[in-house]
Amino acid sequence: MQRLLTTLLRRLAPPDDPSSDAAVLLRFVRHRDETAFELLVWRHGGLVMGVCRRVLRDEHLAEDAFQATFLILARKAGSVRGSLAGWLHQVARRVCLKARKRNPVPQEAGGDRGVFDPDPLLPVELRSVLDEEIARLPEKQRLAVLLCYLQGRTTDDAAKFLGVPQGTVLSRLDAARKRLRSALTRRGVTVPAALFATAISTPDVTAEVCQRATAAALDYLNSSAVISVPSQLAHEVTQMTARKTALGMMAAVVLVSGVGTGVGLVMAQGGKSPPTKAADKPPADSAKAEPKPTDADLEAKLRDRRLDELHMNQQQVSIQIERLEERRLKAIADAGSEVDPSALQAKLGEMDKSILSLEDSIASKPEEIGKQEKRIEEMKAGRFAGVMGYDSELLHAVNVTQEVMEARMQFDVRLQSLNQLKQRANSASELVKEAEKLYKTAEAELSKVREAAGPRATKAVGEQFIQRAERDLKGMRDAQERMTKSQKSLRDKRVELVVRIQRAKAALNAQQLIDDEIQVLREIRKQVLRERLLLEMGLDKQK
């Protein structure tokens, strides 16, 4: 009981290892950390994908079930207890059964949907019943199989995770193998030696699949995901699990009530439990000579030595994979949001267009400034020919002078008197002749006054036009200076953007190198695990 309580408290306590599944899962639950969830998908995606492919045998359905499993993990992350691998195996199998019920697996590969068959030599019967028989194992044995075989951990790591001695893990694995072999034999499934390890091994998932599953899970968690097959599967399985949990709690209440009633009845009747039979004592050791080792004994020792080597190799590879996963997690965090060189490259193209446009405008400014300076020099020299608006303003300036306005009024009065006399008297009369003389005198006076006012008006209007031209020249120079500063600023930003693009490409290359290295190490671990399985299950001698 003390060991059971210690193990339970160890599982419920906050994890000490920041890279463990429990710590990463807790980080996601508390902070909704996208990187933490992607790391969980990266670690356990192969296990989930293996279950989906074995049960469904349809690539598209397997991908939907794979994504639905991690949608449920995102929604139920806070309720996961114990091994995350065991929890995901159960959820993945439920999702696959629900998906197979909605879309029966085609009997022939020539149907409408393509049947996924990664290894045609592997018996179909084995793929369809393997996870079912693993799910029927007792919990302790099933967890040992998931940790050591489907997740690829060493027995030492599994023992530390479960809080039990390594020998206990080995005994549970041995009992699980015997149960699996017996169950498969009863179902008429024969397992060739070279194919059992292939059947129980997990496939690899790419970084793109992990990122796509992570994005879909966060959208589903935030209730912003589009209705799709994975989201429908996740919703149906979640509802079904909730109903089963409620029914299980009701059954437990009824059972506890019944047990309590039975105990009370026994106590009332004074019943006693029958005494247990004492265990037989082992016979005393007899002095016998140790038998000589046989060929079978020597072969067993060689097998045990090889198993020790495989355990050590698997542990070393697992440690390297964990370190690379930590490096990948740090590389993603350091890269931040600038991990898309194509978007930065498009931004660089827009910036280059702006720089070229500014260069064209700046190049045309000296010519415009030179023309304006020449125009000002001509104006100062008194040459206003061709200057738009100058003649009309000069005429207006002459007409509005005081002397011209008075002479104009006198001229208008004389003209009006002459017209009135012509209407009343004969044009040859003396009055009309006198009026005509006065009119001509006023007209001559008006011309003389205009000529006198011309130089003053010309000077005033010319000064105004020169001032306007000088203001325009200053505006041109200021605009040229502003464009030059903008051009320099854009060029500086372009240099920074080029550096960002180079860093983004380097970050992607680093992540890709880490991904490739992890894939290679996973393949090595898979080969080691296959050989270990063959040795432990005694299949290495089968043909």
Description:
With 543 residues, this protein is mainly α. The protein has 2 domains: 2-260, no CATH class; 341-536. Helices cover 78% and strands 0% of the residues. The protein contains 17 helices and no strands. Helix 2 (21-31) packs across helix 3, helix 5 crosses helix 12 (229-269) and helix 13 runs antiparallel to helix 17. The longest helix has 107 residues, at 430-536.
SSE layout and pairing:
Layout: H1 2-12, H2 21-31, H3 34-56, H4 59-76, H5 84-102, H6 124-136, H7 139-150, H8 155-162, H9 166-186, H10 193-200, H11 207-221, H12 229-269, H13 295-335, H14 341-380, H15 390-399, H16 402-424, H17 430-536
Helix pairs in contact: 2-3, 3-4, 3-5, 3-6, 3-11, 4-5, 4-11, 4-12, 5-12, 7-9, 8-9, 10-17, 13-17, 14-17, 15-17, 16-17
Relevant terms:
disordered N terminus, 17 helices, mainly alpha
Number of helices: 17
Average of the residue pLDDT scores: 78
Helix content: over 70%
Structural class: mainly alpha
Which band does the percent of strand residues land in? Answer: under 5%
Largest sheet: none
How many discrete domains? 2
List unreliable stretches of 5+ residues: 1-14, 107-113, 261-268, 276-280
| Rg result | 48 Å
Number of strands: 0
Shape: rod-shaped
Span between N and C termini? Answer: 46 Å
* Secondary-structure element series: HHHHHHHHHHHHHHHHH
Give me a quick take on this structure.
The protein is mainly α.
